[in-house]
Amino acid sequence: MASARHWEQDKEATVYVGQLDERVTDSLIWELMLQAGRIVNVYLPKDRVTQIHQGYGFVEFLSEEDADYAAKIMNQVRLYGKAIRVNKASADKQKTVEVGAELFVGNLDPMVDERTLYDTFGRFGSLVTAPKIARDDVNISKCYGFVSFANFEASDAAIANMNGQYLMNKEISVQYAYKKDGKGERHGDEAERMLADEARKHNVQPNIQPLPAQLFSTPASAAPPPMQNGGGPGMGYMPNGNYHAAPPPHQSQPPPRPSAQTPLPPPPSDLPARPPRSHAGYGGPPSMMPPGFTGPGQPPFPQPQAGSPQPPMGGPPQFAPPPGFTPNGFPPPGMPPGFRPGPPAAYGSR
């Protein structure tokens, strides 16, 4: 049961035993766990000075089946009045390391929230925690936040691509955040990078916390348009980013026109009465018609009697020429027949 044997044990066939009373010994744990299966090793880490165990230990069985059975039947068994904890060592909390790839994002617009930081910086790599926005007591943004990546490759890429860029019309600053020890040192130094490399070589993963569900939910303003008439989404929506799979836009049909046989609806009863129809030809009063005009509702021109002289110009009597009017080609009154007047003298000639 040497301590060196613990580092060579089969992790899949080993159980963790915790919450042990200080009076518990290696022999007692051996006798208790022997009831579950054949034991290879029992190891309780002890203090170098007092030689008292530190409240936990490991028991290695000969097979994985015996270890599984011990974890089922021995968990919460009481020793000296204390319920012990027994579970598979491989299922226990794995060793984690804080990488230190934490970035400070400053000069943020007050409208930038955690989802905006996640959408902006999540494209560079995995995040170990959800982005954080510093806020005051009334939940108003202090215009800066923090983003933690799982490795330095992602954080270096985020600084190279986002420092000095505009986010919501404000130029942001992206750099490594200060360490929490208060010594004024920033993350991302050579010591942290060497520790991260060593942890990766020994398959020690960073402690990645589950991200809240609201970071992945689609906001209401960005939701696709509703279905139209049982068809696909409205025009402009491309499912899965594939425009070939987008349905054609909905063709709206114009309302049908009423046919000529369709009777018009009756007019409203509160409209004023229609004025009487005019009998004049163009809709005006009869007094505005010129004398002798024959139109709807006007008497025809009087017919000349037999033997009566015809009115000159063939017009009605009301349009007789004035006295002294001589038609072209006839001599003026008092002149002998065949007389033709000469052309009028030009204006200004003598």
Write a brief structural summary.
The chain is 14% helix and 14% strand. With 350 residues, the chain is an alpha+beta fold. The N and C termini lie far apart (157 Å).
How would you sum up this structure, described in words?
Helix content is 14%, strand content 14%. It is built from five helices and twelve strands. The protein has helices at residues 26-33, 64-73, 114-121, 152-162, 190-201, and strands spanning 14-18, 39-43, 56-61, 78-79, 82-83, 85-88, 96-97, 102-106, 132-135, 141-148, 173-176, 205-206. It is elongated and about 170 Å long. The termini are far apart. Mean pLDDT is 74; it is low at 1-7 and 227-247.
Give the arrangement of secondary structure elements.
Elements: E1 14-18, H1 26-33, E2 39-43, E3 56-61, H2 64-73, E4 78-79, E5 82-83, E6 85-88, E7 96-97, E8 102-106, H3 114-121, E9 132-135, E10 141-148, H4 152-162, E11 173-176, H5 190-201, E12 205-206
Parallel strand pairs: 7-12
Antiparallel strand pairs: 1-3, 1-6, 2-3, 4-5, 8-10, 8-11, 9-10
